[in-house]
Structure formats: structure tokens, C-alpha cells
Design goal:
The protein is of the alpha/beta class and 412 residues long. The protein is 46% helix and 13% strand. Strands 2-10-9-8-7-3-4 form a seven-stranded mixed β-sheet, with helices on both faces.
């Protein structure tokens, strides 16, 4: 028999976080804990369907006026408008001046990809693959891959995490921006930086914006956790809104996976802020062509859930309460883990656990300590030492804290 035409295709290594989850499922140990996957869990360790989402799903199911016709290529208009509104704020001058547009996408990843494809084709000249794209060190692994697969040839990193002080390396970050070629693209985490959980303060954001404006750098925000980080939609969108107030043209990729719990619905939005309405409409016309050959038309269910919720003052308030419930549980787990580690006298400082924000915490554990946690304690976390705070519960906190204490004490 002739060899397969695919015989030369190499096997790609599995995506790390999904491989971790698969290993966790196969582990028969009763003590096992999954701190890897980036999804919210209740104190019982179960996925949570937001009560407001259940309510809106019922409303949609009972609405006989709805059908399964194609949505417009750019997506459900009321979803797009409301998604951009919560990103930029009700009183956004950019919205009032009609210089905001948006594209419904397949999750936050889809928003990043449509933005990346457009920038590669049209940013700073036609088909400019040589423009440097800067990604934080460390960052969510998909940031590099999305821009690389979109055709950018020069992917660089900028300083972000200071391992010694377990916090933001602001000076390194600013230096990298000062030294970046003009018109470089910078991927910025709007809030709840993944994987470190370390965000700039408003004053630090102002310093970042000042350098970016002076150096003519393009901000591309990734906003995957609005509301989920602090419990406040406005606080978590502060950086994006400040940049808009400073006159930047920018992109903002939004995800509704975390703050609506719609992980498998793939609900995302790309908000575009331009200098004027004409610029925005021309950008959207090109994005429409990109979408047409990518997924052609987006799905409606998740977008309709979000649009219905955000359009109703009563449902909107209920959703904000649901989001705060999730944020508050994460904040509580941070406080409880830190207090246990400090009570145990675990070597090192642990204040970074509560100073970080959002779903993830960069613990500071090194790869050998992580390996010990997985193999000896059956506690699954990323090799970087990143943990999902939602994987902690009142039932496993003591075990996790003691295991971290043991790993840090035994393994250098």
C-alpha cells in the first residue's frame, strides 16, 4: 500500500492546559485538585451557569419571533453595540461621536485574530508583515500564536513580570516601549493579566499611555475578564477608557466566556475606536471581508444572551450581581490561601497572592516545585507556577497550602 500523503506531517505537542486537564481526569487519587483550567468553579468544584443566563435562555426559548436565519456578517447589531458600550462606558465621547465600531467574533481569540488579520493587511501601509508586535513576558500563549499565524514576522516581548519582587517591572516595560520602533503594536491586558494577575495601577497606566502616545505605538487591548477581576465593570475597564480619553485609535478584543460563564458559546467582540466615523466604517468594511472567509457569519445564541442581558436594566443589574459573586469568591480564596501559607511559615513572601487580581495567580513556584506538586500531591498547575484561584475551595485549601509549603521547603 502506498504511503499516506500525510506521512510527513509531524505530531504537534498538545496544548499544555488541556493536556493538564486530561492528566487530571485520568488521575485516580482522591486528593487530586485541578488548578490549571481557566474556568470558574463553585466552592463545590462545579461549573456554574449564571442564574441570569438561565433566565435569559428561557426568555429566548419562549420567543416565537426568533428564527435561525443568518446573522449579518459583522454580527448581531444589539450585541455589538452593547459589548462596546460596556467596554467604553455609557458616557464615552467616542461612542457619542460615532467613531466606534465592532465585530462579533468567536470568543476573545476570534476577536484577536480578526484584529491581527486586519492589521497585517492594512496597518501602517498595505500588507505590512514586518511591523513589530510586542507581547508581555510572560503572556497568554495564544497571543504569540495568533499574530504569528496572521502573518506577522517580528513578534517581540516586553518586560512585565519581575520575578524577584513578584510584581510589575514597570521600568523595564517603559524602557521597552521607549526603544520600540515607532508604530509598533503592543498587546495589552486590560485587567487581570494572564498569567501573572498583576496589573498596572491607574498612575502606572498613565505613564504607559504617555510613552505610547509619544512613540506613536498602537494599543491592542485584550479584555477577557471585565467585571470578573474586581467585581466592578468600570474599574476593570479603566485602562481602555483612559486610552480612549487620551485620543488613541485602538482595538479591544472582548470575551464573554468568563464574565457570563459562556465558555462553549464562544462569544466575543472586537471593538474598534477610530479618529472619525469614516475611518471606522472603512476599517469595518475590510474586517467584513476577513470574517466572510473565516467563519462567514457568527452564531446567535450566546450573542443573544449577552445582548438581552445588557439591554435590560433589570437583567443587567442581576448580571452584575452574578459577576460580583464570582469575583468575591476569587478574592476570598486569595485571602485564605495567603493566610494559610503565612501561618505555616512557608519560606518567602506571599503578599503577591492578594495583590494580584483576577482568575490567575503567579505563585512563584519553579518548574521542579510544580512537578513535585503534580507527581507527589496530585495538584495540577501550569509549569510556570500559574494557578487558577477558582480551583481552590474551602475543602481543599488546607491541603493545597500544606502542599505548597512542602514543595517550597523541600525543593529549591
Amino acid at each position: 500500500m502506498a504511503a499516506s500523503i500525510f506521512a510527513a506531517v509531524p505530531r504537534s505537542p498538545p496544548v499544555a492546559v488541556f493536556k493538564l486537564t486530561a492528566d487530571f481526569r485520568e488521575d485516580g487519587d482522591s486528593r487530586k485538585v485541578n488548578l490549571g483550567v481557566g474556568a470558574y468553579r463553585t466552592d463545590e468544584g462545579q461549573p456554574w451557569v449564571l442564574p441570569v443566563v438561565k433566565k435569559v435562555e428561557q426568555l429566548i426559548a419562549n420567543d416565537n419571533s426568533l428564527n435561525h436565519e443568518y446573522l449579518p456578517i459583522l454580527g448581531l447589531p444589539e450585541f455589538r453595540a452593547n459589548a462596546s458600550r460596556i467596554a467604553l462606558g455609557d458616557d464615552s465621547p467616542a461612542i457619542k461621536e460615532n467613531r466606534v465600531g465592532s465585530v462579533q467574533s468567536l470568543g476573545g481569540t476570534g476577536a484577536l485574530r480578526i484584529g491581527a488579520e486586519f492589521l497585517r493587511r492594512w496597518y501602517n501601509g498595505n500588507n505590512n508583515t514586518a511591523t513589530p508586535v510586542y507581547v508581555s513576558a510572560p503572556s497568554w500563549e495564544n497571543h504569540n500564536s495568533v499574530f504569528m499565524d496572521a502573518g506577522f514576522k517580528d513578534i517581540r516581548t516586553y518586560h512585565y513580570w519581575d520575578a524577584a519582587k513578584r510584581g510589575l517591572d514597570l521600568q523595564g516595560l517603559l524602557n521597552d516601549m521607549e526603544n520600540a520602533p515607532e508604530s509598533s503594536i503592543f498587546i495589552l491586558h486590560a485587567c487581570a493579566h494572564n498569567p501573572t494577575g498583576t496589573d498596572p495601577s491607574p498612575e502606572q497606566w498613565k505613564q504607559i499611555a504617555a510613552v505610547m502616545k509619544r512613540r506613536s505605538l498602537f494599543p491592542f487591548f485584550d479584555s477577557a475578564y471585565q467585571g470578573f477581576a474586581s467585581g466592578s465593570l468600570d474599574k476593570d475597564a479603566w485602562a481602555v477608557r483612559f486610552f480612549v480619553s487620551e485620543g488613541f485609535e485602538l482595538f479591544c478584543a472582548q470575551s464573554f466566556s468568563k464574565n457570563f460563564g459562556l465558555y462553549n458559546e464562544r462569544v466575543g467582540n472586537l471593538t474598534v475606536v477610530g479618529k472619525d466615523a469614516d475611518n471606522v466604517q472603512r476599517v469595518l468594511s475590510q474586517m467584513e471581508k476577513i470574517v466572510r472567509t473565516t467563519w462567514s457569519n457568527p452564531p446567535s445564541q450566546g450573542a443573544r444572551i449577552v445582548a438581552t442581558t445588557l439591554s435590560s436594566p433589570q437583567l443587567f443589574d442581576e448580571w452584575k450581581g452574578n459577576v460580583k459573586t464570582m469575583a468575591d469568591r476569587v478574592l476570598l480564596m486569595r485571602s485564605e490561601l495567603r493566610s494559610r501559607l503565612e501561618a505555616l511559615g512557608t519560606p518567602g513572601t506571599w503578599n503577591h497572592i492578594t495583590e494580584q487580581i483576577g482568575m490567575f495567580s503567579f505563585t512563584g513556584l519553579n518548574p521542579k516545585q510544580v512537578e513535585y506538586m503534580i507527581k507527589e500531591k496530585h495538584i495540577y498547575l501550569m509549569a510556570s507556577g500559574r494557578i487558577n484561584m477558582c480551583g481552590l475551595t474551602t475543602k481543599n485549601l488546607d491541603y493545597v497550602a500544606k502542599s505548597i509549603h512542602e514543595a517550597v521547603t523541600k525543593i529549591q
